[in-house]
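User: Please predict the structure of the protein below. I'd like the answer in structure-token form so I can feed it into my own downstream comparison script.

Assistant: Understood. Taking the following sequence of 155 residues as input:
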Amino acid sequence: MVDAAITLIEKHGLLPHPEGGFYRETFRSDIQVETAVGPRSAGTAILYLLNGDDVSRLHKIDADEIWHFHEGAALAIHSLLPDGTACIDVLSPDNPQIVVAAGVWFGAELVERNSYCLVGCTVSPGFEFSGFELADPNMLLQTWPNARNVIARLT
């Protein structure tokens, strides 16, 4: 593990995330909004860290998510789009904010393996684990066969 990552995990009290990496929720709005699945917080935010060979496994959530670069190396965010295509956005000091739309399968990995990246993720309406789903690689391959390598690495 990269020394700077260990320091950040300890400093911010980050815990292992089910999708991979480390996180801590830092904000949950007291404002409630009505959604198709009932009331929930208007917005949430987390700190999220990937280190070394960690990946954010392919998953989807039922809300829009904005990724904000804080420090470290660049992060490749892979998205599997509803039209059957796949794309990569690189989160970095030169491109410090990326939006992933609700319902899109996505995951992330470090561009440089012997590094780390600390990001912030803001979700609106607020994140709930009930709206979080990890991907089944066989199901994804049916729609995105051209993304076989990404699906293999991130599931």
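That's the full token string. The two ends are 21 Å apart (CA to CA).
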